[in-house]
């Protein structure tokens, strides 16, 4: 199985982070909007398509802020993710003017049950994946200088 590229949107507004909401046997958890790059798309095209599909908004894509790898065999979900190797490119994004109906889009992520704004001040209390990135987001918004490449983290 090959390495999959994925583009993710980090959307922060009024002290809150926009995330898609999913549910599993352990309860609710959250992910950044975005998804897999398709053949012939650049990462910006991927991210625009995925944001329309998952959160029903058009985004202005800013700087690439983090690159994260996920090599499934190295993490807690290895039983079902052992073959997964994904590289995620996380871009700082803004919702374009005129996007008023934030919510589940036309092609939601598998298992998606909603869209939520998570307060940055409480971000560490949420099951947001990748979990390690929660602290990086808080530090980035606070203006701390951070590495772009985060390595194989979850």
Query: In terms of per-residue confidence, which ranges show pLDDT below 50 for 5 or more consecutive residues?
Result: none
Give the helix level as a range of percent: 10-25%
Rg: 15 Å
CATH superfamily: Nucleoside Triphosphate Pyrophosphohydrolase
Note the run of SSEs as H and E.
EEEEHEHEEEHE
SSE class: alpha/beta
- Please state the average pLDDT score: 94
- Strand tally is 9
Q: Termini, distance in Å?
A: 20 Å
CATH topology: Nucleoside Triphosphate Pyrophosphohydrolase
CATH class: Alpha Beta
Features:
NUDIX_hydrolase-like_dom_sf; alpha/beta; 9-stranded mixed beta sheet; hydrolase; 3 helices; 154 residues; NUDIX_hydrolase_dom; Nucleoside Triphosphate Pyrophosphohydrolase; NUDIX domain-containing protein
What is the compact description of this entry?
With 154 residues, the protein is α/β, with parallel strands linked by helices.
Written overview of the protein:
This protein has a single domain (4-145), classed as Nucleoside Triphosphate Pyrophosphohydrolase. Helices cover 17% and strands 42% of the residues. The protein contains three helices and nine strands; from the N terminus they run E-E-E-E-H-E-H-E-E-E-H-E. The chain has helices spanning 43-55, 78-81, 133-141; strands at residues 4-13, 16-24, 27-31, 34-36, 59-71, 85-95, 112-119, 128-129, 149-152. Strands 1, 2, 3, 4, 5, 6, 7, 8 and 9 form a nine-stranded mixed beta sheet that branches. It starts with a strand and ends with a strand. The model has no long low-confidence stretch (mean pLDDT 94). InterPro entries: NUDIX_hydrolase-like_dom_sf, NUDIX_hydrolase_dom. Residues 2-141 form the Nudix hydrolase domain. Its cofactor is Mg(2+).
């Amino acid at each position: 199985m090959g390495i999959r590229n994925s583009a993710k949107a980090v959307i922060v507004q009024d002290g809150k982070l926009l995330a898609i909401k999913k549910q599993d046997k352990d309860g609710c958890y959250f992910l950044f909007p975005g998804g897999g790059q398709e053949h012939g798309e650049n990462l910006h095209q991927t991210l625009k398509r995925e944001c329309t599909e998952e959160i029903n908004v058009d985004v202005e894509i800013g700087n690439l802020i983090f690159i994260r790898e996920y090599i499934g065999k190295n993490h807690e979900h290895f039983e079902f993710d052992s073959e997964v190797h994904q590289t995620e490119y996380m871009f700082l994004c803004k919702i374009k003017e005129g996007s008023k109906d934030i919510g589940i889009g036309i092609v939601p992520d598998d298992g998606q049950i909603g869209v939520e704004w998570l307060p940055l001040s409480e971000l560490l209390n949420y099951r947001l994946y990748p979990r390690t990135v929660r602290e990086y987001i808080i530090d980035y918004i606070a203006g701390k200088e951070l590495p772009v490449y985060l390595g194989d983290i979850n």
